[in-house]
Amino acid sequence: MSPHTLLLLVAFHVNISVNSVMIVTRGTPDVFVNSISLELIWEECLANCTQNDMCVAVHTIGDGNCQIFEFGDLQTVKRSNDIESKFAYKMKNGNLSTCPADDTVGETNSIIGINGTSGREVYIEYTISFDQTSQSWNFQSTSPRLCPHARYKMFKRALGPMFLAWHKLLLWKLYCNFIYLYYDAYSGIDTPEEFEFLKERADSWNWFNSSYPLYAVWLSGVKKPECVGNPSCQGLSAFSFADPTLSAHPTGFLFNPGKPDGTGEDCLAFRVNSDRTCGIDNAQCDQGRTSDNSACITGQVCGLPPS
Ligand SMILES: *[C@@H]1O[C@H](CO)[C@@H](O)[C@H](O)[C@H]1NC(C)=O
Ligand SMILES: *[C@@H]1O[C@H](CO)[C@@H](O)[C@H](O)[C@H]1NC(C)=O
Ligand SMILES: *[C@@H]1O[C@H](CO)[C@@H](O)[C@H](O)[C@H]1NC(C)=O
Ligand SMILES: *[C@@H]1O[C@H](CO)[C@@H](O)[C@H](O)[C@H]1NC(C)=O
């Protein structure tokens, strides 16, 4: 048996949101429900798959016959000895420094990728495996769980995937009286990565530009009733959270120095400070401003479990 030729492509193109490798070998798609046909030569076909987060495998017989398979489209591929029947599948392979030893490697993993058709983020769990008996590769995946809108960003939390979005009031530059509404849809900040997302959004609206007023947004986090007026309640544990996938001990609430403080009926907000740093602060739930009266609360950070 001749050794299988393997080609390892590591994707570092800026448009690619998922780092991956293509395992290149020979095979014939056996069971599949759909594929995309493109008139591309093999190298372009491989590159096209690498750049499409939704693509899990490609096949071609002869140049100009590129068949792209997205997650869910393909079930099995049989090994082929036909040198013209080229087949490649994509794996995330966390160990990018290690070249897989052969073409029978598989993995169980998940991706958060961008569906190029809708521009929305998608979460998919999948398993790729090789069956020695039937000499075929098996592809299984959960149906894609789609972000409700392109402005949402998905985060994979320990308790399940969650989409975060930032809702500003329509007339947020005119009004500053956005009290805490007891929606269940407010999101907490599970990880520093989620905090970073809020920072990026704030930056995209120039909130760190010193010629702008100071703004803030509500998050999930309401002072527990037994902690109102009770100075023995300290830190994050004085607050309760409606957010269903927030960890028991979230690490993303990066508080301003000395915060949270006070024993009032407070809720939590992400805010820009007067020195244009940012952090989490506590503010009176029934006020549209931070307690130092400097920042205006103009919206909320919402979270949605995937549909
Ligand atoms: C794949 O190729 C098709 C046809 O040439 C092109 O329209 C599409 O943008 C390509 N996709 C990627 C991700 O490069
Ligand atoms: C990466 O390599 C480490 C150490 O060899 C191993 O424990 C781990 O399972 C590998 N991860 C993947 C995704 O292959
Ligand atoms: C990408 O989005 C399109 C349009 O919303 C949808 O038809 C397609 O199934 C999606 N593909 C995946 C793999 O999620
Ligand atoms: C800050 O905002 C002002 C007024 O809109 C603008 O002229 C300036 O370029 C901004 N500065 C930066 C660093 O974006």
Automatic annotation (TrEMBL):
Signal sequence annotation: 1-20
Pfam hit, one: PAN_3
InterPro entries reported for this sequence: PAN-3_domain
Keywords: Signal
Superkingdom: Eukaryota
Domain PAN-3: 7-139
Protein name: PAN-3 domain-containing protein
Organism of provenance: Caenorhabditis latens
